[in-house]
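does this look right to u?? zinc ion version
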Amino acid sequence: MSTDQKLASNSDRWVKCISTQGNIRGVALFAKNLVQLQADQHKLRGDSISRLGEALMGGLFLASYCKKGERINLNIQSTGRYKQALVDAYPDGSVRGFLVERESPEDLTQDDQGPWGSGTLSALKTKDLDREKPYIGTVPILTGHLAKDLSFYWVQSEQIPTAVGLAVQVKNKQVVAAGGFLIQALPGASTDEIRGIEEHIRELDSFTKQISQIENPTQLLSHLFQNTAFMVVEEKPITFKCSCSWEKVRRALGLVGAEELASMLADPKISVVRCDFCAHEYEIDRETIRELLEAVRPQGTDKT
Ligand SMILES: [Zn+2]
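got this back:
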């Protein structure tokens, strides 16, 4: 089987297209394996899997039109059951993320909002190699449904008429399907064209239920565009990538201060630093702590 055929079967990927008139563009993505992998790393279940999946796909949509070398940090701060979701996504299709659940969800005030409650949604765009000022767009969470609030984000912060759909189907901790779409009207799109697409989005109303019946991202685009002719401009695999490393953990520990390091050394338990994004645990051996302590203690204050 060639790589292309493998990509065409059940792998995670996004497909980007543009209408032949050049007025409407779209991205459809499938991310079942990615969502499952991150759900397993964070030992999530049920609703939490869906929420993290939505946030990961949302971050990927934001990154999908970024330039090479740029990065998106999607930060959702919510009053709901989920306090926060953080996602790092890159235009090469790589992504990582995590979810912070509220410890006592019973304290929450009930409102008619969707699962994300209310709060804010921020997207920070940075260039890895540049000192250029990062761009940040923040909008309030209005509906608590991430897909709708992301549509609002594009309308509000970039003035692009946008429709977003996000769906994660979970059964017994297993992701059955995860996918989404982003459709945007570009300058010159006629009211008829926009109305046509809107209608097909409405037909996909129960998108979460339908996602498992759609075979691949291109088929999803065909459902949405129907009579509007389009061409595929990019097909790219989506991958999980975490940039954490032992070296970075060591560097971060060098900044915690002598007091903290000394107490780690005094603790009979082995210190562990856990990566928020991938849950990998780095064990900190005593030798390393001693070395770091040497380095941070000012000369002449070592009385041991
Ligand atoms: Zn990591």
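The first strand starts at residue 13 and ends at 19. idk if thats expected tbh
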